Amino acid sequence: MFVEYIFIILGCCVLSSDCHYKTICEGSSCYFLYENKTSFLTWDQSHRACNTEGLEMLGIESRQIQTVIEGLVNNLPRNTARQIWIGGRRSTDDKWRYLNGTQFNKQYTRNNESAQYCLYVKLCKNGNPEYHADNCDEKNSNSRLLCQFDQSKTDRCNSSDSHFGDKCYRKTTHDGQKQTE
Protein backbone atom coordinates (compact mmCIF):
# COMPACT_ATOMS: atom_id res chain seq x y z
CA MET A 1 0.00 0.00 0.00
CA PHE A 2 1.37 3.42 -0.96
CA VAL A 3 1.90 5.59 2.11
CA GLU A 4 0.61 9.07 1.42
CA TYR A 5 1.35 10.66 4.79
CA ILE A 6 4.42 10.23 6.86
CA PHE A 7 5.00 11.98 10.17
CA ILE A 8 8.33 11.68 11.82
CA ILE A 9 8.29 12.32 15.52
CA LEU A 10 11.47 13.69 17.11
CA GLY A 11 13.49 13.68 13.92
CA CYS A 12 13.90 14.44 10.28
CA CYS A 13 13.17 12.47 7.15
CA VAL A 14 15.57 9.59 6.61
CA LEU A 15 13.16 7.08 5.05
CA SER A 16 13.16 8.08 1.36
CA SER A 17 13.00 10.92 -1.11
CA ASP A 18 9.22 10.36 -1.31
CA CYS A 19 8.58 12.10 2.02
CA HIS A 20 5.81 14.66 1.64
CA TYR A 21 6.70 16.98 4.50
CA LYS A 22 9.53 18.96 5.97
CA THR A 23 10.59 19.08 9.60
CA ILE A 24 12.55 21.64 11.59
CA CYS A 25 13.40 21.20 15.26
CA GLU A 26 14.25 24.24 17.35
CA GLY A 27 15.07 23.57 20.99
CA SER A 28 12.52 21.09 22.33
CA SER A 29 9.94 21.90 19.63
CA CYS A 30 9.61 20.29 16.21
CA TYR A 31 7.60 21.87 13.41
CA PHE A 32 6.11 19.71 10.66
CA LEU A 33 4.96 20.85 7.25
CA TYR A 34 2.36 18.19 6.46
CA GLU A 35 0.99 17.61 2.98
CA ASN A 36 -2.08 15.73 1.79
CA LYS A 37 -1.24 14.63 -1.77
CA THR A 38 -4.75 13.43 -2.66
CA SER A 39 -7.12 16.23 -1.65
CA PHE A 40 -7.41 19.68 -0.16
CA LEU A 41 -8.30 19.96 3.52
CA THR A 42 -10.53 22.32 5.47
CA TRP A 43 -9.13 23.90 8.62
CA ASP A 44 -11.03 21.40 10.82
CA GLN A 45 -9.77 18.43 8.78
CA SER A 46 -6.24 19.80 9.17
CA HIS A 47 -6.73 20.16 12.92
CA ARG A 48 -7.88 16.52 13.14
CA ALA A 49 -4.93 15.35 11.01
CA CYS A 50 -2.47 16.87 13.50
CA ASN A 51 -4.40 15.55 16.53
CA THR A 52 -4.57 12.02 15.08
CA GLU A 53 -0.78 11.91 15.31
CA GLY A 54 -0.62 13.44 18.79
CA LEU A 55 0.50 16.78 17.35
CA GLU A 56 -0.98 20.27 17.53
CA MET A 57 -1.62 22.74 14.75
CA LEU A 58 1.06 25.39 14.90
CA GLY A 59 0.48 28.65 16.70
CA ILE A 60 3.07 31.24 15.69
CA GLU A 61 3.44 32.78 19.13
CA SER A 62 6.83 34.43 18.82
CA ARG A 63 9.07 36.08 16.26
CA GLN A 64 11.49 33.14 16.67
CA ILE A 65 8.81 30.60 15.67
CA GLN A 66 7.70 32.87 12.84
CA THR A 67 11.28 32.94 11.51
CA VAL A 68 11.57 29.13 11.70
CA ILE A 69 8.26 28.68 9.86
CA GLU A 70 9.17 31.25 7.22
CA GLY A 71 12.30 29.17 6.59
CA LEU A 72 10.16 26.05 6.10
CA VAL A 73 7.75 27.84 3.77
CA ASN A 74 10.48 29.60 1.78
CA ASN A 75 12.14 26.27 1.01
CA LEU A 76 9.02 24.89 -0.70
CA PRO A 77 9.27 24.32 -4.45
CA ARG A 78 7.62 27.17 -6.37
CA ASN A 79 5.08 24.82 -8.00
CA THR A 80 3.55 23.62 -4.72
CA ALA A 81 0.34 24.55 -2.91
CA ARG A 82 0.52 28.18 -1.92
CA GLN A 83 -1.62 28.17 1.23
CA ILE A 84 -0.84 26.37 4.48
CA TRP A 85 -3.28 26.18 7.43
CA ILE A 86 -1.95 27.17 10.86
CA GLY A 87 -3.55 26.76 14.30
CA GLY A 88 -5.25 30.07 14.83
CA ARG A 89 -8.84 31.17 14.52
CA ARG A 90 -11.25 33.85 15.62
CA SER A 91 -12.96 32.89 18.88
CA THR A 92 -16.55 33.50 19.92
CA ASP A 93 -15.48 36.69 21.73
CA ASP A 94 -14.31 38.01 18.31
CA LYS A 95 -10.61 37.83 19.24
CA TRP A 96 -7.95 35.98 17.28
CA ARG A 97 -6.48 33.12 19.31
CA TYR A 98 -4.21 30.17 18.85
CA LEU A 99 -5.58 26.77 19.83
CA ASN A 100 -3.87 26.97 23.23
CA GLY A 101 -5.87 30.12 24.01
CA THR A 102 -3.05 32.63 23.49
CA GLN A 103 -4.34 35.80 21.85
CA PHE A 104 -3.08 36.26 18.30
CA ASN A 105 -1.03 39.26 17.22
CA LYS A 106 -3.35 41.17 14.88
CA GLN A 107 -0.50 42.41 12.70
CA TYR A 108 -0.86 39.25 10.61
CA THR A 109 -4.50 39.75 9.61
CA ARG A 110 -5.85 42.04 6.90
CA ASN A 111 -8.83 44.36 7.20
CA ASN A 112 -10.59 42.93 4.13
CA GLU A 113 -10.59 39.51 5.78
CA SER A 114 -12.44 40.57 8.92
CA ALA A 115 -15.32 38.15 8.26
CA GLN A 116 -13.04 35.11 8.05
CA TYR A 117 -12.28 32.81 10.96
CA CYS A 118 -9.24 30.54 10.34
CA LEU A 119 -5.61 31.44 9.67
CA TYR A 120 -3.23 30.32 6.96
CA VAL A 121 0.21 31.21 5.62
CA LYS A 122 0.37 32.04 1.92
CA LEU A 123 3.60 31.65 -0.04
CA CYS A 124 3.87 34.63 -2.38
CA LYS A 125 5.56 34.61 -5.78
CA ASN A 126 8.50 36.55 -4.34
CA GLY A 127 8.99 33.74 -1.81
CA ASN A 128 7.83 35.74 1.21
CA PRO A 129 5.09 34.27 3.39
CA GLU A 130 2.00 36.33 4.25
CA TYR A 131 -0.54 35.56 6.96
CA HIS A 132 -4.22 35.55 5.98
CA ALA A 133 -7.63 34.44 7.19
CA ASP A 134 -10.18 32.32 5.35
CA ASN A 135 -13.47 30.52 5.88
CA CYS A 136 -12.70 27.44 8.00
CA ASP A 137 -14.82 25.24 5.71
CA GLU A 138 -13.00 26.26 2.52
CA LYS A 139 -10.68 23.73 0.95
CA ASN A 140 -9.33 26.08 -1.77
CA SER A 141 -5.65 25.26 -2.26
CA ASN A 142 -4.89 24.29 1.33
CA SER A 143 -3.35 20.85 0.93
CA ARG A 144 -0.68 21.55 3.54
CA LEU A 145 -0.76 22.33 7.22
CA LEU A 146 1.72 23.11 9.96
CA CYS A 147 1.84 20.96 13.10
CA GLN A 148 4.10 21.14 16.13
CA PHE A 149 5.37 18.72 18.72
CA ASP A 150 7.10 19.45 22.03
CA GLN A 151 9.80 16.82 22.63
CA SER A 152 9.95 17.62 26.35
CA LYS A 153 6.31 16.56 26.88
CA THR A 154 6.58 12.99 25.64
CA ASP A 155 7.57 9.64 27.06
CA ARG A 156 9.78 8.73 24.10
CA CYS A 157 8.36 6.39 21.45
CA ASN A 158 4.99 4.66 21.51
CA SER A 159 5.19 0.87 21.42
CA SER A 160 3.82 0.82 17.86
CA ASP A 161 6.35 3.37 16.52
CA SER A 162 9.43 2.42 14.55
CA HIS A 163 12.80 3.31 16.04
CA PHE A 164 16.01 4.51 14.43
CA GLY A 165 18.69 5.40 16.96
CA ASP A 166 17.05 7.70 19.49
CA LYS A 167 14.35 8.82 17.02
CA CYS A 168 10.71 7.71 16.72
CA TYR A 169 8.87 7.27 13.44
CA ARG A 170 5.17 6.77 12.77
CA LYS A 171 3.61 5.96 9.40
CA THR A 172 -0.01 6.56 8.51
CA THR A 173 -1.99 5.94 5.35
CA HIS A 174 -4.11 8.49 3.50
CA ASP A 175 -7.12 7.75 5.71
CA GLY A 176 -5.19 8.34 8.94
CA GLN A 177 -5.05 4.63 9.87
CA LYS A 178 -1.74 3.23 11.00
CA GLN A 179 -0.03 1.13 8.39
CA THR A 180 0.98 -2.35 9.42
CA GLU A 181 4.32 -3.62 8.26
From TrEMBL:
InterPro entries: C-type_lectin-like, C-type_lectin-like/link_sf, CTDL_fold
Residue ranges annotated for the C-type lectin domain, each copy included: 26-139
Keyword set, alphabetical order: Signal
Region (Disordered): 158-181
Entries under PROSITE patterns matching the protein: C_TYPE_LECTIN_2
Keyword presence, Signal: yes
Presence of keyword Glycoprotein: no
Any Pfam family the entry gives: Lectin_C
Matches recorded under CDD domains: CLECT (cd00037)
Protein name: C-type lectin domain-containing protein
Organism listed in the record: Paralvinella palmiformis
